[in-house]
Design goal:
single chain, 608 residues, Rossmann fold, 3 domains, eight-stranded antiparallel beta sheet, seven-stranded antiparallel beta sheet, 36% helix
Length: 608
């Protein structure tokens, strides 16, 4: 969750860069840096720590120049230090980057074999060195060749010393916005960095590159075809600035999920070593892990649905028996005390009263108490023996979206960590899982392309009174979550069921007016889910199917068919959740409801 700023124009660049970095400091705060170009004189200054430390390093004299880029970092690859801080330079190129370069190790090895040197542990430096290796006097051509080689998600700001009259930008997966002014242009990873300077913005789309000159901008798609910049005027009151141009916080938070998931795993994985490295604050030492015999997960609402998926992760990846309890019911079970239990409380806020009470009671008989939550210093985090933070950033909307997918990411990491430490998973197996995880933010970005189709679908079903959601295995909890999202913000009666339970009651509800959402990725349960789909159609139900690979079979039976990117079955629930969130949002919007603050609900349930 890093921040990018850039400027080209006639004013001194440094004050604009520092102001923008301050406004983006919530996105990253372990290091920061700027690069300013005055003619062909380049000055780069970087510092570990917050923006104040960078200002001290720069000194009162400042840095001259009217073209520059800046970055505030939360470490992805490499420890927080000055050497790993952005910008990174190689030859005539200086680069700042948000996102993750999935194939950086292979590229780095190849470039080192050709004699190129590296001075940091970051994946970003690979981009700078690639640009350098391809440069033959044309930075735009070097950028095109570089982008053709890198894989992953990125937002890039690039300076070339040999071309001091332009600033380059590129985007895939990570957000990037251009602000336009009279004789000056701005670049940022989020709208708040621009509000002091312009209200006219252009959003870069996935696969696009841009060249910013003081007098204007040029934008091209991945094939190099130019497109006209579509400028948007945004009303810059403080709330709209916080929403980043989105109509509601919920929609903004849905679109923040690539970043939320990335930030949850970014400092906790080593592809090179094929291992998960959890923070010391998690507290799972070898001695603690040696005593774990099973896992108990406690949560409410959306977090409970995350726990249900986590149960599959822990049993299948870590080889540990796991059970999930509704925290609000756990105390009434009078569960007998036993040794060797890892009790995991899952809560976005860390303040959920029922979860706190169950957590304290569940851990009273011994064992280790681990919190999975999003808020630093929250009550549950303080009361736990260890904490696995999700790093999703503030979630303002009452309906949880990025909290859910970041919780799944954290539970996946936990299961992989326990699996590797218990000898259940080999290094090669962990490396394969991590390769899939590293690709996940970009895949979520592709799943977000279903925003418009979900808006169209919502118009078709906005007046429906009921909706049924079906899933199996790890995707059954996603059906529960999809139904919850629809009912809590649109007030449509919706139910989620395991596909195998359909004949045990829900099938009686199906008629020609009932929309039935079927989660049918091509996994081990596909044939069973396809059978459910046929049963719905045989009773004239309306099938809305989501899969990761369409085919003639699904096209023949589904009334509405949508495809999410394909990944391993453990991560499919994250991708399937995205269009269900978007569908619920657009139904609520079409029905004219208050999306961010639905009736009768609060963000954190702090009383029982």
């Amino acid at each position: 969750m890093c921040g990018i700023v850039g400027y080209i124009g006639s004013r001194p660049a440094l004050p604009i860069l520092i102001d923008g970095l301050r406004r983006l400091e919530y996105r990253g705060y372990d290091s920061a840096g700027v690069a300013v170009l005055a003619g062909r004189e380049l000055t780069v200054c970087r510092s570990a720590g917050k923006i104040a430390a960078l200002e001290t390093a720069i000194g009162p004299a400042g840095i001259p120049g009217t073209l520059g880029i800046g970055h505030t970092r939360w470490a992805t690859h490499g420890r927080p230090c000055e050497e790993n801080a952005h910008p990174h330079r190689s030859g005539p190129f200086v680069v700042v980057h948000n996102g993750i370069i999935e194939n950086h190790l292979a590229l780095k090895k190849r470039l080192q074999g050709r004699g190129y040197a590296f001075s940091s542990e970051t994946d970003t430096e690979v981009v700078a060195v690639l640009l350098h290796s391809h440069y033959r006097g044309d930075a735009r051509r070097a950028l095109a060749k570089t982008l053709a080689e890198i894989e992953g998600s990125y937002a890039l700001g690039i300076l070339c010393i040999e071309e001091p009259d332009r600033l380059y930008a590129a985007r895939e997966g990570s957000p990037l916005v251009i602000g336009t002014g009279a004789g000056e242009q701005f670049l940022a990873s989020d709208v708040p960095a621009l509000i002091a300077h312009t209200r006219e913005v252009v959003y870069l789309e996935n696969g696009e590159t841009a060249v910013l000159r003081a007098g204007g901008i040029e934008i091209a798609d991945a094939a190099g075809k130019a497109r006209q910049a579509r400028t948007r005027h945004i009303p810059w009151d403080p709330v709209s600035a916080e929403r980043g141009g989105y109509k509601h916080f919920m929609l903004k938070e849905i679109h923040e999920q690539p970043t939320a998931c990335l930030d949850t795993f970014r400092t906790r994985v080593s592809q090179e070593k094929g291992s998960v490295i959890l923070d010391d604050e998690v507290g799972l030492t070898p001695k603690i892990m040696a005593g774990i015999r099973r896992v108990r997960l406690l949560a409410c609402g959306t977090s409970w649905h995350a726990g249900l998926v986590g149960e599959h992760y822990l049993e299948r990846l870590a080889g540990l028996p796991a059970e999930v309890d509704l925290a609000s019911e756990f105390r009434y079970r009078e569960a007998p005390a036993e040794d060797g239990v890892l009790t995991v409380a899952i809560s976005q806020s860390g303040e959920t009263a029922d979860t706190r009470a169950a957590f304290l009671e569940g851990g009273s008989s011994g064992g280790f108490r681990l919190a999975v939550c999003n808020v630093l210093g929250s009550s549950i985090a303080r009361e736990a023996d260890g904490v696995l933070y999700t790093h999703a950033g503030p979630e303002i909307s009452v309906a949880s979206t990025k909290a859910f997918t970041s919780q799944l990411t954290a539970l996946y990491l936990l299961a992989l960590f326990l699996g590797q430490e218990r000898g259940r998973l080999s290094r090669a197996e962990v490396a394969k899982h991590l390769a899939d995880l590293v690709r996940l933010p970009a895949l979520i970005g592709r799943a977000l392309a279903l925003d418009r189709p979900m808006s169209d679908l919502a118009q078709r079903f906005a007046k429906s009174r009921d909706c049924l959601y079906l899933g199996r295995g790890m995707n059954f909890p996603v059906a529960l979550e999809g139904a919850l999202k629809l009912k809590e913000i649109s007030y449509v009666h919706a139910e989620g069921y395991a596909g195998g339970e359909m004949k045990h009651g829900p099938i009686a509800l199906i008629d020609s007016e009932l929309p039935v959402v079927v989660l049918a990725p091509r996994d081990g349960s596909f044939s069973k889910m396809y059978g459910n789909l046929e049963e719905v159609k045989a009773r004239r139900g309306i099938v809305i199917a989501f899969t990761d690979r369409a085919g003639k079979d699904l096209h023949a039976k589904a009334d509405h068919l949508f495809t999410v990117p394909r990944t391993n079955p453990f991560l499919a629930p994250i991708l399937l959740a995205v269009p269900l969130q978007l569908f619920a949002y657009h139904v609520a919007e079409a029905r004219g409801h208050d999306v961010d603050q639905p009736r009768n609900l609060a963000k954190s349930v702090t009383v029982e």
